[in-house]
From TrEMBL:
Molecular function in Gene Ontology: antiporter activity; xenobiotic transmembrane transporter activity
NCBIfam families: matE
Full protein name: Multidrug export protein MepA
Any GO BP annotation: response to antibiotic
UniProt keywords, alphabetically: Antibiotic resistance, Cell membrane, Membrane, Transmembrane, Transmembrane helix, Transport
Membrane-spanning residues: 15-35, 55-80, 92-116, 136-153, 165-186, 192-216, 237-259, 271-292, 319-339, 351-375, 387-408
Main subcellular location: membrane
Amino acid sequence: MNATQALGQEPVGKLLWQFSLPAIVGMLVNALYNVVDSIFVGNGVGEIGLTAVTIAFPIMLVMMAFGMLIGVGASTLVSIRLGEHNKAEAEYILGNALTMIAVLSLLLSVIGLVWLDPLLVALGAEPEVLPYARTFTRIILIGNVFMHVGFGLNNIIRAEGNPRLAMATMLISAMLNVVLNPLFLFVMNLGIGGSALATVISQFVSAVWVLSHFLNKGSLLKFRLRNLRPNWRIVKDIIAIGMSPFFMQLAASVVTVLYNFGLIRYGGDLAVAAMGIVNRITMLMLMPIFGISQGAQPIIGYNYGARQYDRVFETVKKAIYAASGLSFIGFLIVQIFNYQIVGLFNNNSQLIALGGRGLSIMLSMLPIIGFQAIAAQYFQAVGKARYALLFTMSRQVLILIPMILLLPKFFGLTGIWLAGPTADVAAAVLTGIYLYRELRTLKVM
């Protein structure tokens, strides 16, 4: 029995563990190197470096959005086609995904580099912050194609039944970045540009690693020249399914911009730096949840394609239990050690006070995020893009953006911190209602 067939035959609990653990480890390490990056920047460049990276963050989120559009859309289709035992079309999807990644990433880099300064100023970069943000973002944009290849195609490695190899991709990139960051910042004195350069080099190595997998004999799916030519039906399907995470990331970019403007108004540049720290820690806390979500995706997609709905139901249930448990552990860590965690990034007492309080409030609803993430992932995994988009956008746009604009008028800076948990509660209720209806339908099919 090969790895793909195991998705429909092995015990669900065993599969979920096998697929989620590598994803959790890989994503944790990936998030950890972002945290370590910020620690190095905060201590090596100072508060202005943290502010610059936070100002530039929406641009990075937009680039990530296009990577998710293709990577998640293609990997979901690959899972479903493999469940249908249609390997030839799965390889066609892989080839089209590579073409889409190459074209979109290069186009984004050109646009970003041409209009870099106006973009950064529009995102809130003050004159003293602009040179730092420009240096950092320019290098990231130059290496954009490597990030898209490594991140986008790694999803397909997981979808074809190789979660450990997908984890190795992330580990290699993360570990290299952690080694290069202090080397470039503290030994070679390259400043904030050194941190960006470390990231790009790490992403380049990751991209080479992923491409080599699909070119060697050990992969189930392989690159074939004829599959690189765009098939508009496949392109359309990839975009349709990937639209939910794409808009989620775009919305995250808009949200970050709104947060930054609100933080500048109610707390100044130091509050923006604090939010940069809070965002990194939030990502670290959410990565185990997203790891379980990613681990469940190929199991759900394969069995849904194979019409084994009892296994789909069991996967969703066990994934919710696991994600909820991990999110509660993360909640306890943040609430108990919030100020100590923020203090790792910088020793400025004002920054620690701002960041510690913000972290505690923003992650106050973390225990319910695990459920919401798995519930939304279910609709993504079975190809119901409209529902996945609805639940994603309900949290990121329909609820969160109005809260960011409204709550600070009554509670000032505290209102900005409160916007996130308010949206978490509302989105979890909405997603839960629809998931309950969907799973009841599966039981009678």
